[in-house]
Each structure stands twice: as structure tokens, then as C-alpha cells.
Amino acid sequence: MAPRYQHHHRTRDFGRVLDHAERIVRLVLSLVIVTLLLWLCWTDPVLSANSQIYLKALMAFALAVLMASMAGMLEIEGKSPGWIFRAAGGCAIFALVWFTLPAIVGSLERRAAAELRMESFELFDIRSMEPPGDPRVQAVAGVAVTVPLDISATSRFNVAQPAWVHGAMLHIRVGHDTVKLPWLYFVRHVPGKQNSWLSSDPLTTAQTFAVAAETHQYREVLFASSPQQLNWGQVIRHMEKTGTLELTVFWQTRQERGAVGIEQSCRTAVKPDRATVRAVLRRFRNPGRYVFNCAT
């Protein structure tokens, strides 16, 4: 004959197993949270907006579950309902960690190897330039843009490393077309000094220069077009018609032992007053420096 209270013993044994399982789940969840926090502190990544939302939701829910479990708030009287709610809570925690953790890790944005701070662009008739003799910038009625650039080498993985800036392209939107202007060379390295040309720089479209760790450098970068690509008259007439001109600069930066070819961009718009545009149109056949400042 079976013992009278065998069913009660089995129920208590099953309860102990579930209690142990709940403790294991809490331990694993705690380890996941601690590991994630340590990883975020060590790598110091840049989180996108979606990543921040996922991270906050995961941390808030996990912390609430842990606090409630430790305080005994998840204890529900009765037999079947209590285990059902516990099982559902465990599945919810598992699903939350399983589905949100890859979303957090997958949407991390790589930290830029160099911080680029750009000031007001200058757009002008290329014939008014007087750089060291380069036939590419002596073409008639071409368009030139200088970009004042302050570059700082940032830290990656808590280690200060030098950064390199290599490659840049300026996009000018004229009507329905987007014209791409190459990076020719650095113009000035002293703010506001008109004649501080860097004539020793190689006149190539694939220049690279290094920025020492935890320092910054100032450069003004020249972009220019050929007359066949884009001429000064087209730009002025477009500004007269639309009242604005969109410019976007795409930079390529890299860092030692870091990601190669991280792209950064900056967009701005030139919005000159009508009187200035009309004055330039009357005299655009003659060389002259007509500067349009535009805040980035």
C-alpha cells in the first residue's frame, strides 16, 4: 500500500526543484546584467537611440524582477496558479534577454577615430584663389569650397591612439543633380591667416594626415570643381532660383588598431540674401572672391 502522504512529498520535492530553478534564473540574469554593464564601461561604445531604449528597458525590467523576487513579491498563494505565473515570468525574462541583447549589441555604432568639428563653409569663385600654382584650380569659372576643420584624436577602448584622416568628398546639390567635388589639398593651417598656404602638402586627392593622441589640429580643406563639372554661374543661378544650396562633406577616418574607414558627414545649407546674389550675377564673369558663409 502506498504511503498516505506520498503526493504531498512529491509536491514539496517539485516545489524545491522550482525554487532552485528560480534561484538559478535570478543568478544568470544578475550575471548577464553585470557582464553587460562591465562590457559597456570597458569598451565605451557610442549607443544609437534604439540601443539606448533597448538597454534601458532591459535594465529596468530585470532590476524590477530581481527586486520583486528578493522581496517575495512574486509569491502567489495556491498551487497551480503560483507555478504558472512563475513559469510565465521565467519565460518572459528569457525572451526579453534573448531578443533584446542581440538588438543592443547589433546596433552599436562604432566610435569615430577622430572627432571632426567644422565651422562655417566658404563658397566662392575659384578664379579668386591664389594658391601655389596648380592647374586644377586655375580653370575658368570653377567653384571652390573651403572647409575650416578642427580635428581631435579620441580614445578608443580607453587607450589614447593617434588618428588619421584620409579621403573626403564634398557633395553639392544643384537642382536635381548632385555634383561630387574632390578634396584637393589643405589650404591654411592658421585660422584667419590668408597666406598660410601648405604648399608642401602633396597635391593629390588621397591625402592622409595624422593627429597625435589626445591633441587637435586645425586645417582648412579645399574642394574644387572643373568648369565641365560645375561652374560658378550655375551655382549662382541656382541660388537665385531656390534661395539655398545644400552641401554635404563625407570624411573617412581611421585609427591604429581600430576600425578602418569610418565615415562621418556634415551637412549645411547656404542661404544668401537676394541682393548679394544679384550683385554676384552682374559681375560673375570677372574674377572675384564672393564669400557665402554658412553655419553648420
Automatic annotation (TrEMBL):
Transmembrane segments: 24-41, 53-71, 83-108
Keywords linked to the UniProt accession: Membrane, Transmembrane, Transmembrane helix
Protein known as: Uncharacterized protein
Organism per entry: Pseudoduganella buxea
Lineage of origin: Bacteria, Pseudomonadati, Pseudomonadota, Betaproteobacteria, Burkholderiales
